[in-house]
Amino acid sequence: YVSVGGSQNLRFYWNQYLSQAHVLVFVVDSADRPHLPAARQELHWLLAEDPRLPLVVLANKQDKSDALSVAELHRELALHTLNEQREFFLLPTSATHAALATATSIRHVKSLLV
């Protein structure tokens, strides 16, 4: 398990870890609409590097009233364009203290993956 941040200065390192990955876990802020086009572009760039790598997209901040739904994120991230051989999951998550006891808790999802 390796977590590599998404800030611009860390993206240089993504490729180094991607070649050894068994699954790509991509966390997106469901309430950050202005940055979704950039998130979509980065996600599809990563996916092009390894067409068979399974994908888990965590639609974070689902607790926010302005968060996009999973269906809206599916469309905004253009997940319908993925090739049919790629396994992928799009899961709603929340990292708030109140959500820790729920199935959408980011901690719960992490325990399923690690």
UniProtKB/TrEMBL annotation:
Pfam families: Arf
SUPFAM superfamilies per record: P-loop containing nucleoside triphosphate hydrolases
UniProt keyword terms in alphabetical order: GTP-binding, Nucleotide-binding
A molecular function (GO) term: GTP binding
Keyword Cytoplasm: no
Binding positions (GTP): 6, 60-63
Listed PANTHER family: ADP RIBOSYLATION FACTOR LIKE GTPASE 10, ADP-RIBOSYLATION FACTOR-LIKE PROTEIN 9-RELATED
UniProt name for this protein: ARF like GTPase 10
Species assigned in the record: Terrapene triunguis
